[in-house]
Amino acid sequence: MSSPAAARPVVTVLSAETGQPSGSTSMPAVFTAPIRNDLVQIVHTSMRKNHRQPYAVSRMAGMQSSAESWGTGRAVSRIPRVPGGGTHRSGQGAFGNMCRGGRMFAPTRIWRKWHRKVPRKQKRYAVVSALAASALPALVMARGHEIDDVPEVPLVIDGTAEGMKKTAKAVTLLKSLGAYDDVERVMETRKMRAGKGKLRNRRFKQRRGPLVVYEKDDGIVKAFRNLPGVDLCSVDCLNLLQLAPGGHVGRFVIWTEKAIQKLDSIYGTGETGSSIKKNFVLPKNIISNSDVARIINSDEIQSVIRPIAEKKTWVQRKKNPLRNTEVLFKLNPYARIQKKEVQKKTITASADKSAGKAFYEQMIAN
Amino acid sequence: AAAAPQTPPRPPSSHPSNAARPAMVAKSGAPPVPESVLKKRRATEKVAGERLIAAKAAQKARREAKKEAFKRAETYAAEYRAAERTVIDAKRASRKDGKFYVPDGAKVAFVIRIRGINAMPPKEKKILRLLRLRQIQNGVFVKLNYATIRMMQRVEPYITYGYPNLKSVKELIYKRGFGKVGTRGAWSRIPLSDNRIIEEALGKYNIICMEDLVHEIFTCGEHFKEANNFLWPFQLSSPKGGYSKKSKLIHFTEGGDAGNREDLINRLIQRMN
């Protein structure tokens, strides 16, 4: 049971000629999927390894000598030494990683595990999260894109853009959309790479700009591909490495109208599954109402929770009741009476004692 | 108790769906108080009211408990005096007849561990643990029956014990009394600074104050076991003036300190308390 399009939020479509609103289309359900940036990061790190080329040292590097250890008793260390004579090399240590011309420690091998398998479900979940993040201007800005002048996110241009042939037209389009700031940002950040990558066909580094997603390439790729930072992608094969570069969600995406309309059939809505991806339904949020404070203060919850339990703390410093009368009377109220009795007894006892002493004095005197 | 107020016409909620409706301004012209604030206020007032009632009830209960403690202490004081006098009178009467009066044997002993924890044989170690004497200079009250007497005989070299008098029992519990408060696995050693601690732990056995506790221990009442177990093992000081000059570890009858010293335990308690 799909909800009518009118009930779903609407995305304005901007004209590819003028950059002005020319229509609207309903928001695809993908953009409400949960944003699992932790999952995106995990999947991204694994996926990024899949276009690696193996590197290794030569298998025989440092091992192509007939060196043998001289053993003990010759006042030299026991490292294998090159035999023979007549050259500097004879008697030099060989093979060890500490030796000059020896093999390295743990020679890199080509059978290292270069690629990572990622479960299909995870990959799909990650892409879906990245798409949802690209629809939130806050996240796109947080990723670093300059979208202050962009009228709406997600940014959708009408289908005529797919037939664009000239890069100059592409530039004017982006400028009218307010998206050229992001391209300029990329141009400004173009720097020479630090390190050996310079000499390995990776001379320059620059940021990523907008990602243009199209449904059918009628020339749009050729129009946009030379712009610095701009990537292009068909909606049929959305790539996480482009949607979340560096594992960071929120790429600035420019959709064509046909592409964004196709998203509902590719990913399905929450109720229906995808018609293209087998056994795929959009993931659901764990919590649908994120206003937790409002939930806590709602009548439904407040009416059944108990008030805060007062923590009872007893006096931790013990006062000795045998010396501290206040504490004694608190523990034993009758002690007040007992103390009085004792006082009386001592008074009479001392009175008796002094009387007895006086009598004795008198007796002696007599 | 705070009476439930007549709810005034509620100001409209600030939900975005209400943005179209005109906001209802309070009569005074000030901006309306948010509904959530009013709700919270009402809830807080209700809780405060309930707390006040509970506090007043608790105060009343404390006053009653104090009166009850007074009455009980009074009856116990009379009881102890009477018990003392009957023994003395019986002795005098029998002496007159040329006979001998043998008073009842002691029902309660006080046991003090006088030996440390190193080099303990396992069975004796277990027995001391069962008696809750895990540390040197720890003291516990023990009910005297066949089983416990045999237990104490077994560990005689490690303990000294005897029959405490009322003064010893009182002073131990008042000065060094700590209660075992909490649940299994989460016990705390709480000083007996308030009768409420005793009441909460032992109220169901009709022991609600210090004097009740002393009475239960001294006269070995029906709930001696529970009362005694509530008392954490007493952690006594070393005796002022030291243990015996000869050697602590030989039996008391041989001039040492170990074993049963009957009534003379009271002197030791005075020096260790």
Which regions of chain B have little confidence, pLDDT < 50, spanning 5+ residues? none
Number-wise, the strands of chain B total 7
Shape designation of chain A: flat
Largest sheet data of chain B: 5 strands, mixed
Fraction in beta strands of chain B: 5-15%
Overall shape of chain B: it is elongated
CATH class category label of the largest domain in chain B? Alpha Beta
Lateral arrangement of strands in the main beta sheet of chain A: 2-1-5-10-8-9
CATH topology of the largest domain in chain B: Ribosomal Protein L30, Chain: A
CATH topology of the largest domain in chain A: Ribosomal Protein L4, Chain: A
Q: Low-confidence segments of chain A, ≥5 residues, pLDDT <50?
A: 1-6
> Order of SSEs of chain A, N→C?
EEHEEHHEHHEEEHEHEHHHHH
Number of strands of chain A: 10
Task: Let me know the average pLDDT of chain B.
Answer: 91
Class from helix and strand fractions of chain B: alpha+beta
Order of SSEs of chain B, N→C? HEHEHEHEEHHHEEH
Name of the level-1 CATH class of the largest domain in chain A: Alpha Beta
SSE layout:
The complex is a heterodimer of chains A (366) and B (273).
Chain A: E1 10-14, E2 21-26, H1 37-48, E3 68-69, E4 80-81, H2 120-134, H3 137-143, E5 155-157, H4 167-177, H5 180-188, E6 191-192, E7 204-205, E8 211-214, H6 220-224, E9 231-234, H7 240-243, E10 253-256, H8 257-267, H9 292-296, H10 299-302, H11 325-331, H12 335-365
Parallel strand pairs in A: 1-5, 5-10, 8-9, 8-10
Antiparallel strand pairs in A: 1-2, 3-4, 6-7
Chain B: H1 35-96, E1 108-113, H2 122-130, E2 138-143, H3 146-154, E3 159-162, H4 166-176, E4 178-183, E5 186-191, H5 195-202, H6 210-218, H7 224-230, E6 234-235, E7 259-260, H8 265-272
Parallel strand pairs in B: 3-7
Antiparallel strand pairs in B: 1-2, 1-3, 2-6, 4-5
Helix pairs in contact in B: 1-6, 4-6
